[in-house]
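queue> holo job accepted (uridine-5'-diphosphate)
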Amino acid sequence: MKVLVTGGAGYIGSTTASALEDAGHTPIILDSLIRGRREYAVRYPFYEGDIADRELLGRIFREHPDIGATLHFAALIVVPESVAHPYLYYHENVVKSLELFRALDELGCERIIFSSSASIYGSNTGSDFKVSEDTPHAPDSPYARTKHMIEMALEDMSRALHFRSIALRYFNPIGADPAMRTGPYDEAPTHVLDILADVASGRIPIFRITGVDWPTRDGSGIRDYLHVWDLARAHVLAVERFDAAFDAFGGDFIPINLGSGRGVTVRELVAAFETVWGKPIAKEEAPPRDGDVAGAYASADRAAKLLGWKTELPLTQTIADALRWVHEVRPRMLGY
Ligand code: UDP
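queue> job finished
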């Protein structure tokens, strides 16, 4: 199937494009390259531009009338930036997604799969930190609120217009394509595993465990980490099983958690990292970051039932892939 991939030059979009190709599909990339990488986009038919550009979308669908589904990844995703620049986030994420959805409806696209986020649950996680799709939303950053708002609009538009939609709520994707085609490319990483890899290579002097007094089993933050390749595979299954999922679930809109179903604390992640790396790394305890939360992990039963998906790659392989990427491929790509 031909699949339109907005944000297909980003970390998760590009990895999903590879997974689509490996499964025999054809990704068609739409990306502004404001945050994405050109070398990721040009592997496939590529349109450089904005998701709200109605004319460009018209051209894409004229040239590829057989597009069967749209995967909508394109978004700004940096939480502190969203706090500093809320208009930018609401405009780029919410307003432009609405324009995209309206255009997709007019162009006859019947299947939309949206990149949502577990951050919409905020700290609303109860004492066991496990969240299901029915857990009420409590988004606590402008970024998380954009995902929450887009989901609400998408649900309403799915009911009223001609398309149906699935919102995939990601927990914490980490690592890189096991075949090393794509991976994270921030020069100054903010996510925990990329920081650990930079500490191992000496680019960052010490790892700070940010938050040691959370009500978790060892006081450090808990998250549900999943290999980005497992996440990419879930998108392929969402495309392939889209109609069957609606046959089973009903309605016009399905939210689905994508996580491993296991919570891992920062201290546990550091221990696993040190085992894979083969030696201890420099670390210290530190206060939580601004806006940090204790965390959450997924009830992933719905993904298993509707998509036949669960995570397969163990944390140790995820760490090993991240290390290979950050130490061998990313320096060549970024030229340092
Ligand atoms: N974290 C940490 N040190 C760092 C960066 C992150 O201890 O240098 C912790 C952070 O407090 C959180 C977990 O690692 O408990 C995951 O952070 P990340 O930013 O990767 O994911 P998010 O908080 O966005 O879910």
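queue> The two ends are 38 Å apart (CA to CA).
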